[in-house]
């Protein structure tokens, strides 16, 4: 039995599709019935009969932060893909990020040890990797610098420490650190917001850039690592390092709109994060741009995937083709 936590998210839903199509026996947790419909929609991108595949999954309603309700999730489980996480860059969400990403991961690790799980794959993030310096690509060996990290990155790094702690207690583990994951179906969160923003024909783009990877590449890397003898290793998953302008230049034509051409100035970014802080404190609104995230927008981060390429002979798919696929699905739904 394979357990996938966070199966109703972007990576989790695509991983479930891959595992079921490959003939595996799979279990996944969910929190609400509505979240299952998101998975059904994703399955529908790749098959005409998503319901049949959905019915092959052993769905268990459970929250990884509620330890008392997790025992049934781990019955007869041999392998665990831990994809569940909360994504937020609002400093006010630090406590809930800590609970979900760190304490939730500790629960998964502890129950994996308790139930004799053979191997665990944890989905972290490049947000938990030390930043690149002087245009050099960041690697898995880069030194962690919490001062430059977002609250999300801090909790993902701390979650990795829980996974490494599990490895010291006898659990076989691997960690993947994907860049911004490009994939269809979640247009109001994560990378989906780039497609939504571009579709509106906006004029402005943010400076800087980062590493990008397709959801298919993430799923393939995870399953290859789990089926290998590799353990106690972490791997950056980045297909291409791009500026946000370069990304919009790829997305916009496939959506039939003009790409944004005006760069948001440093002054505007500095003003906006300060105004956002005042707005949040006066009116209790959610932060849209924290100071740490704003500072990161000035730079183009570079990440190396040479380790996964060399150890698994891994080949990334065509990013442009994957972006076009996402654009086609976006247009069909709008």
TrEMBL record:
GO cellular component: cytoplasm
Superkingdom field: Bacteria
GO molecular function (one): aldehyde dehydrogenase (NAD+) activity
InterPro entries per UniProt: Epimerase_deHydtase, NAD(P)-bd_dom_sf, NAD(P)-dependent_oxidoreduct
Residues of the NAD-dependent epimerase/dehydratase domain: 2-228
PANTHER family named in the record: NAD(P)-BINDING DOMAIN-CONTAINING PROTEIN-RELATED, PROTEIN YEEZ
This protein's name: NAD-dependent epimerase/dehydratase family protein
Species whose genome carries this gene: Flagellimonas oceani
């Amino acid at each position: 039995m394979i357990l996938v936590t966070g199966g109703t998210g972007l990576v989790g839903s695509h991983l479930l599709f891959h595992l079921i199509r490959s003939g595996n026996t799979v279990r996944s947790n969910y929190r609400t019935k509505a979240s299952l419909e998101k998975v059904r929609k994703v399955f529908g991108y790749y098959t005409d009969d998503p319901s049949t595949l959905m019915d092959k999954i052993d769905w268990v309603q459970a929250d990884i932060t509620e330890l008392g309700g997790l025992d049934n999730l781990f019955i007869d489980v041999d392998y665990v893909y831990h994809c569940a996480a909360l994504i937020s860059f609002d400093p006010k969400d630090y406590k809930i990020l800590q609970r979900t990403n760190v304490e939730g991961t500790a629960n998964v690790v502890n129950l994996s040890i308790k139930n004799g799980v053979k191997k665990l794959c944890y989905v972290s993030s490049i947000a938990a990797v030390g930043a690149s310096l002087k245009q050099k690509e960041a690697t898995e060996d880069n030194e962690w610098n919490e001062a430059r990290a977002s609250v999300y990155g801090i909790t993902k790094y701390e979650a990795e420490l829980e996974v490494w702690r599990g490895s010291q207690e006898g659990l076989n583990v691997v960690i993947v650190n994907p860049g911004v994951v490009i994939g269809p179906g979640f247009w109001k969160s994560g990378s989906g917001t780039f497609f939504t923003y571009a579709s509106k024909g906006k004029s402005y783009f943010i400076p800087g850039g980062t590493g990008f990877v397709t959801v298919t590449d993430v799923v393939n890397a995870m399953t290859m690592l789990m089926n290998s003898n590799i353990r106690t290793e972490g791997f950056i998953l980045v297909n291409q390092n791009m500026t946000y302008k370069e990304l919009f230049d790829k997305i916009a034509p496939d959506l039939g709109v003009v790409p944004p051409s005006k760069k948001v100035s440093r002054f505007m970014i500095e003003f906006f994060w300060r105004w956002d802080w005042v707005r949040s404190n006066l009116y209790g609104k959610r932060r849209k741009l924290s100071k740490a995230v704003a500072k990161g927008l000035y730079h183009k981060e570079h990440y190396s995937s040479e380790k996964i390429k060399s150890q698994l002979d891994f080949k990334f798919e065509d990013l442009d083709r994957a972006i076009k696929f996402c654009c086609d699905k976006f247009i069909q739904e709008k």
